[in-house]
Amino acid sequence: MQKSNKADFECQKISLLFLLLGTFSCISTNESKVTIAVAANMQHTMQSLIAEFESSHDIRVETSSSSSGILTTQIKQGAPFDIFLSADMNHPSMLHKEGFASAPAVYAEGKLIFWTMNKELILDSGIDILIHPEIKKIAIANAETAPYGFATAEALKSSGLFHQLKSKLIIGESISQVNQYVQTKNVDIGLTSQSVLYSPHLSVHSNWKALSDTLYSPIRQGIVLLNHGKENNLSNSEEFYNFMFSNRAKEILLNYGYQVSK
Description:
Elements: H1 2-29, E1 33-39, H2 43-56, E2 60-66, H3 68-76, E3 83-85, H4 90-97, E4 105-110, E5 112-116, E6 138-141, H5 147-158, H6 162-165, E7 169-172, H7 175-183, E8 189-193, E9 207-210, E10 219-225, H8 227-232, H9 234-243, H10 247-255
Parallel strand pairs: 1-2, 1-3, 6-7, 6-8
Antiparallel strand pairs: 3-10, 4-10, 5-8, 5-9
Helix pairs in contact: 2-10
């Protein structure tokens, strides 16, 4: 009789364990979240945007960051992103045209800067500083995959310096890699997004100057609602999409050096 009671007790424990596991499984499976592909220049800004969004929404935000070109390729190959925040309008427009996304909208406009860890370097001469003999390595993002790289190449060509500087150029896969090259002093100077200056991890021992925006086309950054978000996660996706045009999100973007529409 005692053995029977003991066996029944063990069965009850096992049943309870499976019940609890099933409950946790349901919680995990049904967790409310939105998955966002984010251009590399937006990495640090995105952390503040997410913190603000999650403070007022019961939705967890997951992100994947790379150059806009690489993220576009991943989306075309079926990556399960709900929203895409690009560093330009070309890539989201292409996704819309090819049937992968809704029509894009501009959420911010970025700026290019010269950035160096050499505090003694005088940057007042503008883009001509790049031909200074002291500058032997210049980091720029890949013009084929990174919109800020495309804008940089456009600026160098507009100034007539592209071919003269070609041997000095160190190409980063994205703006994040350019920033890494500058911070680790693997290059003498980099051309990057102004938003890097507002990174919480930025070394204070740096020197920068805005690049004349007459040398490159406006860097209008676009957002799209992707098919995966529309078909599988519409409510959460729309919540974050709409948040990006809220006054609070615009305030955060301004604080990180971007321009936004009023």
